[in-house]
Amino acid sequence: MPAPPSISARVRALLARRPVFDAHVDAIGFAADLGHDLGTLTPGQFDLVRAAEGGLGTWVVVCWPDPALHLERSFARTSEMLVAAHALAERHPARFRLVGNGAELDAAHAAGAIAGIAGIEGGHALEQSLAKLEWFFERGLRVMTLVWNNHLAWIRSCQGGAGPGVPEGLSSFGHEVVRRMNELGIVVDLSHAGERSFFDALETSTRPAMASHSGCKSLHDHPRNLSDEQMRALAQQGGVVGIVFHPGFLDAGARAEEARVRQLSAYAELREADPAAKFLAQQRLMRAQAAPLPAGRLVEHVEHAVLVAGIDHVGLGSDYDGIERAPEGLEDARGYAVLAELLARRGFGDDDLVKILGGNMERVFRAATGAGTRAAESHVPLPLPC
């Protein structure tokens, strides 16, 4: 395996400003389930120590209630993960702050802290209740991925297998969800959405949206990737596509390689009882057994998205700790610096690098959240809505 590229003085100086905004990180699940303190070095792909080395300034702290495990209690499960996010901020106040708008983001950066934005992946967490959306907002929620891979009664995902009770796009309740997110100041995230759902949400939203962690379908025809038409529409609305780090979404060969590893007896024989511990074991095995995907393939997706959507509409959404592996040299959060160096070598200037690394995502966050509302400061649970 070749060594990752050395980071130039130019890129080091740029990263010292901590410009990286990662629109999708799943690591808070390990904090909730395994007690990982993300303010220290941890066994997963992401923690605040390595992220700071990579130049991270802001990340979306994703609460994902796995529908295979928690569908009947998805609201409660999401609440548990949100509590873990607030606990992390209280444990490391000098290193990490949860923020609810642009002013709070600026204050976190001025204090030398990494900013965290509370997010939810999958509208099943709402359990079809706008009151629960509002409850999450009061607890700091500022980004929500409308749907995960499981279809809902009010929105279709990008996956197949939708039953007769699933709309082609958004139902009337789905449109209400988007409108209420706009009113509250919650970023609408369209990754995982079916194509009709994607366009329905864009037409309904009055504020810029994002697709937090997706690739380019024209480079790899994967259900989770966006077509050129989708990326252009997102750009026209002022939004941003966050290019995902998942090799299986970036490259057909990498997807086949991951499928091969999952068929190995060693993979099938992983016996950790806790799902989070098992996923960590799967990460280790996949990284050891799968042929690496060169990071240049990720750069190609960034370049294609810039060509199609424009330099002001492309960002990053790693999906760290929601994926089993990342491209070569980007295996953990220190890899932000590697990606910045590779983009610099492909000819992107400093201003354009800052836009891709985080400036574009930050703009969408500011546009959606404004400056008046505040993130919740305590992790003491509020009364649950009925």
Report what the structure shows.
With 386 residues, the protein is of the alpha/beta class. The protein has a single domain, classed as Metal-dependent hydrolases (TIM Barrel). The protein contains 17 helices and 9 strands. The protein has helices at 9-15, 28-34, 48-54, 67-70, 74-91, 102-110, 130-138, 172-184, 195-204, 228-236, 247-250, 252-262, 265-268, 275-289, 296-309, 335-345, 350-369; strands spanning 20-25, 56-63, 96-98, 114-121, 141-145, 187-189, 210-214, 240-243, 314-316. Strands 1, 2, 3, 4, 5 and 6 form a 6-stranded parallel sheet that branches. A 3-stranded parallel sheet has the order 7-8-9. Helix 7 links the parallel strand 4 and strand 5. Mean pLDDT is 95; it is low at 372-382.
Features:
six-stranded parallel β-sheet; 9 strands; three-stranded parallel β-sheet; TIM Barrel; 386 residues; globular; 17 helices; alpha/beta
* The CATH topology: TIM Barrel
Largest sheet: 6 strands, parallel
Query: Which regions contain 5 or more consecutive residues with pLDDT less than 50?
Result: 372-382
> Termini, distance in Å?
54 Å
Beta content comes to 5-15%
What letter string, H or E per element, gives the SSE order?
A: HEHHEHHEHEHEHEHEHEHHHHHEHH
CATH class: Alpha Beta
Counting structural domains, the number is 1
